[in-house]
Design brief:
four-stranded parallel beta sheet, six-stranded parallel beta sheet, alpha/beta, 13 helices, Rossmann fold, binds D-glutamic acid
């Protein structure tokens, strides 16, 4: 039977933290998750490489029948989304859509801060792209944004090396660094879909009243709104409540580690890109 699941993409496991919230809010849809674990992390890769890998992934989702693909990865959203939307989609699949996670997050992040000082924690790629600075400025021009590239964090999470003294040090180091950049920060945005796995550790090193914001629920709500506003896309998304998982890496490793991101057991299939 032909289905058109909602495609959810990440460089590895991180997008599962977003998928979990989408499924909780919008359980009626079919979802197809793909993690490019074999080539993760993307965070320190060049603009061209992230674009090339992400476009390959998007084409694969389209071949699988997806009408709508969500890049549940800030790095891919920062470095590849605009080119894909503007350059590739019009010729490749004008009736299909690819959306990212940066804009929906920027649209609401100002609502969480009282001091109007926000810290953005992301990969080097996301931070260097300046995407959050530009997007938050559009919606909340008064909000002062500081950024910190937490370079080692994705690898730590992908390899499940989170419960070591080195991991504590790496988390503390970047939290201290961003709070030194701006002491008035009252809201820290986890602008990488891998970082929610570190939230308890991050809390240990931040002042008690700090808002620590993960993107999962924000992106899920934004998807709900998008589907309400775009019935021409919504009616093409199949509704059977089925979940499928693919990885470019080892399915054994994926199934073991994915459960901690997704909160439930996962059985994945392999694909090569
Ligand atoms: N989850 C990806 C993000 O949100 C991680 C990127 C990476 O692979 O470095 O940016």
């Amino acid at each position: 039977m032909h289905t058109s699941p909602i495609g959810v993409f990440d460089s590895g496991y991180g997008g599962l933290t977003v998928l979990k919230e989408m499924e909780a809010l919008l359980p009626q849809y079919d979802y197809l998750y793909m993690g490019d674990n074999a080539r993760a992390p993307y965070g320190s890769r060049s603009f061209d490489t992230v674009y090339e890998y992400t476009l390959e992934a998007v084409k694969w989702f389209f071949e699988k029948g997806c009408t709508l693909v969500i890049l549940a990865c800030n790095t891919a959203s920062a470095k590849a989304l605009r080119s894909i939307q503007q350059k590739d989609l019009p010729t490749l699949a004008p009736q299909k859509r690819v959306l990212g996670v940066i804009r929906p997050t920027a649209e609401v992040i100002g609502d969480f801060t009282k001091s109007e000082h926000v810290g953005v924690l992301g990969t080097l790629g996301t931070v260097n792209s300046q995407s959050y600075l530009l997007e938050i400025e559009k919606f909340f021009p008064n909000v002062v944004v500081s950024q910190e590239a937490c370079t080692e964090w994705v690898d730590m999470v992908e390899k499940n090396n989170m419960h070591t003294p080195e991991a504590n040090m790496a988390v503390k180091q970047h939290i201290d660094a961003i709070l030194q950049k701006d002491e008035a920060i009252d809201t820290l945005l986890l602008a990488c879909t891998h970082y929610p796995l570190l939230i308890e550790k991050i809390r240990q090193f931040t002042p008690e009243n700090m808002n620590i914001i993960s993107q999962g629920e924000i992106v899920a709500k934004s998807l709900q709104t998008y589907l309400q506003l775009h019935p021409e896309i919504e009616e093409r998304c199949s509704k059977g409540g089925h979940m499928q998982f693919y990885t470019t890496g080892s399915t054994e490793d994926f199934d073991i580690h994915a459960a901690s991101f997704y909160g439930k057991p996962v059985i994945s299939k392999h694909l090569s890109l």
